[in-house]
Each structure stands twice: as structure tokens, then as C-alpha cells.
Design goal:
Layout lengths: L14 E10 L2 E2 L5 E6 L3 E7 L17 H7 L3 E15 L2 E13 L9 E6 L5 E6 L4 E7 L7 E6 L15 E6 L2 E6 L20 H5 L2 E8 L4 E7 L8 E3 L5 E2 L2
Antiparallel strand pairs: 1-2, 1-3, 1-9, 3-4, 4-5, 5-6, 6-7, 7-8, 8-9, 10-11, 10-16, 11-12, 12-13, 13-14, 14-15
Length: 251
């Protein structure tokens, strides 16, 4: 885990959290976007789909997308990695903790600042507020009731088609919490040195750069498979993800 603590997060964090509010400097932002954070004892998976999604009917692959559809796809966000919790001063009368998301793979170009927040749980434990430490923001998250129960984390190896040795492929990741799952397949090519995928919206090579799947959905533990409900590749919604013999426990 590259120097990151192997300690599991407290049980209170485990499950799937849906963001219901984002405030930046007191102003509400991104109202209506779909944002999910799945947390296992060690791993997190995060998917963020912006509002005003175009109609992708008839699209079966990235090469089918129109420029308008590609301009929406490059605005998506998502990442996965290891979560680390540490003590923090109380928030008024409420206990608090620091949470750092150590991103190991990211849909957008790698950020240079840490992903670090101060967490305050609501009294019932089913909602929490996240306050920015390095930047000013507040997010409210609510736990999905169907995400409580057993958890799992599996990985598969991957490779780069461009033979890039300095940034090997992360491969694939499958996380389960209760009857919910998060799936990630890394892109086969390395991103160029850019700040945001929007810089590639009109690039003829954008198809390869956008070919990275992050999906969430409904998991059936009895058959060890799940149905994709939300995805960075919209035509993948409705398909099945299976925990077959090729998966190994994520370290």
C-alpha cells in the first residue's frame, strides 16, 4: 500500500454513501449530480456523474459518441484507493475524525493536492458531513441502507497498450458492501500531462483516453454477481459483473 496505514477504517464508515449536498465557500454546487462513495474496511471507490447527461441511446462504444456526448463524458469523475482515518478535534460537541483518500487510480488526471477532509457523523450514524481541510467545502453524505452487511475487495492485473513503464495499469477492482458494488477497469493508455480531461474533448485520440469504466450497481451475494446501474460508459448500464475465478483478494 505504498506506506499507507494498513489499519482498517472504523465500522461506522463502511457502506455506500450518496452525496446529497456540496457547498463551496457557502454556495451550493453540482445540485442533481450522482455521487457515490463505497467504503470497505480498507478500500474506497468513488463515482461522480454530472447533471444533464445526454441521451446515449444507440451508442454501444465510445466511437459511436457525438462531440456533445464526449464533452459530457470528459466531465465525469471517479477514483479508487486506500482510506486512512485519524483523530481530529471535536466539531463543537460532536466527535470528529480526519479522513484521507489515498487515490491509487483516477478517471481524471492525477491531482497534486491530497484528498483530505474532517468527518462529523450525525447522531444516528447514517449520515455525515465532510469539511475540507486544505480547501473550503462541505459535503453531506447519506448511507444507503442496502449497503450494510458483508464486504469484499478483489483485483485483477492489467496492462498498458502503449507499453508505458512509468505508469503501469492499475488493472481492475471490484468492491462489495452489502447488496451494492463498485467496479473499476483502468484505461489501456496513459493520459498525457493535462490538468483535466476536458482538454481532450475534441482530441481525435479521446476515445482511448475515455475508455475507463467505473460502475456501481446492485450485488447479489448468492450468485456472486451484480447489475450495473450507473457507469462512466453509459452503454454498460444493465450488464452483469461477475466475481469469477480470475479475481484475487485486494491486498
Amino acid at each position: 500500500m505504498g506506506g499507507v496505514s494498513h489499519e482498517p477504517v472504523p465500522e461506522a464508515y463502511v457502506g455506500v454513501w450518496q452525496r446529497t449536498l456540496l457547498e463551496v465557500a457557502g454556495d451550493e454546487r453540482e445540485a442533481g449530480s450522482l455521487v457515490f462513495w463505497l467504503q470497505t474496511p480498507h478500500w474506497h471507490g468513488d463515482l461522480r456523474l454530472p447533471v444533464q447527461r445526454p441521451d446515449f441511446s444507440g451508442c454501444e462504444r465510445l466511437s459511436d459518441c457525438t462531440p456533445e456526448q464526449r464533452r459530457w463524458l470528459v466531465r465525469q469523475k471517479g477514483f479508487a484507493g486506500i482510506t486512512q482515518i485519524s483523530a481530529a478535534p471535536a466539531h463543537g460537541d460532536a466527535p470528529a475524525s480526519f479522513c484521507q483518500w489515498h487515490r491509487q487510480v483516477d478517471y481524471q488526471p492525477t491531482r497534486r493536492t491530497r484528498d483530505y477532509g474532517r468527518i462529523v457523523f450525525y447522531p444516528d450514524g447514517q449520515a455525515l458531513d465532510e469539511f475540507g481541510v486544505d480547501t473550503e467545502y462541505r459535503e453531506t453524505w447519506v448511507r444507503l441502507p442496502q449497503s450494510t452487511g458483508s464486504t469484499a475487495a478483489w483485483r485483477k492485473n492489467g496492462r498498458r497498450e502503449d507499453s508505458s513503464g512509468d505508469a503501469p495499469s492499475f488493472g481492475e477492482l471490484l468492491l462489495v458492501a452489502g447488496s451494492c458494488f463498485f467496479y473499476l477497469r483502468d484505461r489501456a493508455v496513459q493520459l498525457p500531462a493535462i490538468k483535466h480531461l476536458e482538454a481532450l474533448a475534441d482530441d481525435p485520440r479521446a476515445t482511448a483516453y475515455l475508455d475507463m469504466e467505473l460502475s456501481t450497481g446492485r450485488w447479489d451475494a448468492d450468485v456472486q454477481s451484480g447489475e450495473v446501474l450507473h457507469s462512466t460508459l453509459p452503454w454498460c448500464e444493465g450488464r452483469t459483473i461477475r466475481a469469477d475465478a480470475g479475481w484475487v483478494p485486494a491486498a
